[in-house]
Amino acid sequence: xxxxxxPQTHEPHKPxxxxxxxxxxxxxxxxxxxxxxxxxxxxxxxxxxxDLGCSLGPNTFFVVQNILEGVELxxxxxxxxxxxxxxxxxxxxHASNDFNxxxxxxxxxxxxxxxxxxxxxYSGLFPCASLHFVHSSxxxxxxxxVPKEVVEKSSPAWNKGRIHYSNAGNEVVKxxxxxxxxxxxxxxxxRAQEMVCGGxxxxxxxxxxxxxxxxxxxxxxxxxxxxxxxxxxxxxxxVEEEKVDSFNIPIYYASPQELEAAIxxxxxxxxxxxxxxxxxxxxxxxxxxxLFALSMRAGMEGFIKEQFxxxxxxxxxDSFRKKLEEASSIYDSxxxxxxxxxxxxxxx
Length: 348
Ligand SMILES: C[S@@+](CC[C@H](N)C(=O)[O-])C[C@H]1O[C@@H](n2cnc3c(N)ncnc32)[C@H](O)[C@@H]1O
What we know:
Elements: H1 18-35, H2 38-41, E1 46-52, H3 59-77, E2 86-93, H4 99-104, E3 113-118, E4 131-137, H5 170-194, E5 195-207, H6 218-235, H7 241-245, H8 256-266, E6 269-276, H9 285-308, H10 313-326, H11 330-333, E7 337-345
Parallel strand pairs: 1-2, 1-4, 2-3, 4-5
Antiparallel strand pairs: 5-7, 6-7
Helix pairs in contact: 1-3, 5-8, 6-10, 9-10
The structure holds S-adenosylmethionine (SAM).
């Protein structure tokens, strides 16, 4: 299941709560006001922004507009009203992303030049020292691929009867965490080349709190339940058990410590800020079950159809929702974390 053929990957557990996006917007504005040094970026007349894992919009348009306004304010606050830079925005996602829909829904009054950049953000995408601001939200928990050991029958990491690593043996968890470390290494290496010294990068990513076992992260609990629904269907003969055994979801929820380790290992970025975004929910458990089932379906439907065919989708997500309704205690016991990370490309 490599990137070129992966179906559109929406976030299966992205919170719909406004609290997360409001807090992220505030932190983004503060990041630009406090940490962007105009001297570092003003040698170019064009200020270049990239949103990595942009999907179809409209979130990416809101983010880009916030960045642009923040940068203009910063120029003005330094008495640099004219000339303010021109802005060029690069929207990146897999080549399979529907860029036509993205381009058709661009805001009509946008004040920036636009380019679409297809390809995996785990590889190089831009010329050297060309980007001033990089943004990526709810995308970096997607691995570049399923670790190969977990689908090899002869490997101690073979993940039989499960579709994810939580509640699996240590070997499976290790295979996923190793893949994550390798992917983050590639991501940071590529961005270190592409960003100007002093450029800023904001990453927003669902994560697992430090020291919390994988099996207690709420997003992992959700995948466990989805996996158990598939196994129920295998027992009833609706899907082949072998197909469940060979199906694994290429998502990893790293802890802040794991992310920090990757950043320190790379060495080209300073961590300017790392914070949890508050997620205040007002939904009751039944509405939560419905919402989680809907967002899991939006995120996973493409993968499920590719592996098992379209016929099982309704029944699968129906039984997923029912199991969630019965297991409502997971909302109290499961741990969720949405991380906001601000990095600055160090001066060489
Ligand atoms: C849940 S969506 C997030 C969209 C948007 N950033 C937001 O916050 O609403 C995740 C996006 O990341 C993209 N993505 C995942 N892995 C990627 C990769 N290696 N390279 C580029 N895009 C990737 C997916 O295709 C998907 O469009």
